[in-house]
Specification:
Length: 389
């Protein structure tokens, strides 16, 4: 029998090495990604869409070969925990996620109060935390393992209010309404300052308790002030729709703004035609989406019955940011990954982005995302302005 040639042996050896490498990467390990999100109550839409998008990003990364760190390929598994958008449940979620289940990465978290409870554990236990919560109190160099995954009121308020003021130069007065919790309280400070900076007088800044279903008394109080604008700032869509419906019933027909407005569907469901013309600061118009964005939007819509929004998108983006940082660090240790995170570029829902925010928070831990200003026109949403970071 003829002996194999040297060339043939090299080819076989090369094939064996490639096969071994492929087998090694095929034996991918799984990294659990926890999420502290509302899966029930007024914020359930945000939580359910977030859970789906996290899982979708994990599937896309797996299909592309996983996260390559040294000789291992890692895949992600997303696990949602219902924080019900309050501090008490957020504390329970924190214990379950970190202490009981040993999760080392949190791909997303919603609500300042629930996130505070979670962060008190994640920073001590070496867990990397992504959050969509807006509060300045949970950001900055004091929290080296915490990163922001969506625009907050700090990024949205000024460009949004400037744009609305440009469209309506006659604006002179505004009334603010926020939920009476950590999210609302921190949002109110920034929103109030932004309106005043643009020469608009804040006539009143009022509050309501989460879970409120009767907004007629609040609307009556707001209506009595005869202001030009109502800014519902951090009010969830379903609540915002009810407020605007009550205001319309009282005859008020001014300019409507929701800085954390994440989509038309939730507002329309409760507010009907009373929300026509509302300006939103955290929504994405389907008409402005590319094919891949539309595919993700379709998936979220099947789960929630509503279009995708910036709160949910943050969970998708966080998974891709984690992949980029792990591969840059060549480590799956959360502290090592956190060290390189401020320097990575990654493919977000909106295209390639990185991190910044040192001028506001003291450290570069804020995703640099475009600020998209949309407006409800009838039953659809249209983009009316965009500020690119």
């Amino acid at each position: 029998m003829k002996a194999p040639t040297k060339n043939a042996m090299s080819i076989k050896a090369g094939f064996a090495i490639a096969l071994f490498a492929a087998f090694t990467f095929a034996q991918a390990e799984t990294i659990k990604l926890g999420m502290s999100i509302p899966l029930s109550g007024a914020g359930a839409n945000w939580g359910k869409g977030s859970e789906w998008l996290c899982t979708k990003a994990a599937e896309e990364i797996k299909a592309a070969g996983g996260v390559k760190v040294k000789d291992t390929a890692y895949n992600f598994e997303c696990i949602g925990y219902d924080n019900k958008y309050n501090a008490a449940e957020g504390a329970k979620v924190a214990q379950a996620l970190v202490a009981r289940d040993g999760v080392k990465y949190v791909a997303g978290s919603i609500g300042v109060a629930p996130v505070r409870a979670l962060q008190s554990l994640t920073e001590r236990k070496g867990v990397l935390l992504f959050t969509a919560a807006w509060g300045n109190s949970i950001k900055g160099p004091k929290f080296p393992l915490t990163f922001s995954q969506m625009n907050s009121v700090n990024e949205i308020s000024d460009p949004m209010i400037a744009h609305v003021k440009k469209l309506h130069p006659e604006i002179k007065t505004v009334a603010l309404l926020n939920p009476n919790d950590a999210t609302g309280q921190e949002t109110e400070k920034v929103a109030r300052a932004a309106w005043e900076r643009h020469g608009v007088k804040v006539l009143v800044s009022d509050w309501y308790e989460r879970g409120t279903s009767e907004f007629q008394p609040i609307a009556a109080k707001l209506n009595s002030l005869k202001h030009d604008v109502v800014d519902l700032a951090s009010t969830p869509p379903a609540d915002a729709g009810l407020v605007f419906r009550e205001l319309k019933a009282l005859g008020w027909d001014g300019i409507k703004v929701v800085e954390v407005g994440t989509g038309a569907d939730g507002l329309l469901a409760t507010g009907k035609n009373a929300v026509d013309g509302t300006y939103l600061g955290a929504a994405v118009a389907v008409s402005s989406m590319n094919p891949h964005q539309k595919e993700l939007n379709d998936g979220v819509r099947k789960v929630t019955g509503e279009d995708i929004n910036s709160v949910q998108i943050g969970m998708y983006d966080a998974v891709w940011a984690l992949k980029a940082a792990m591969e840059k660090a060549q480590s799956v240790d959360p502290e090592q990954v956190a060290k390189v995170m401020p320097d990575v570029k990654f493919q977000s829902f909106f295209g390639e982005v990185g991190f910044g925010g040192k001028d506001v928070y003291g450290s570069d831990q804020q995703m640099q995302l475009p600020v998209i200003i949309t407006q409800i026109a009838g039953t659809t949403l249209k983009e009316v302005g965009r500020v690119q970071k």
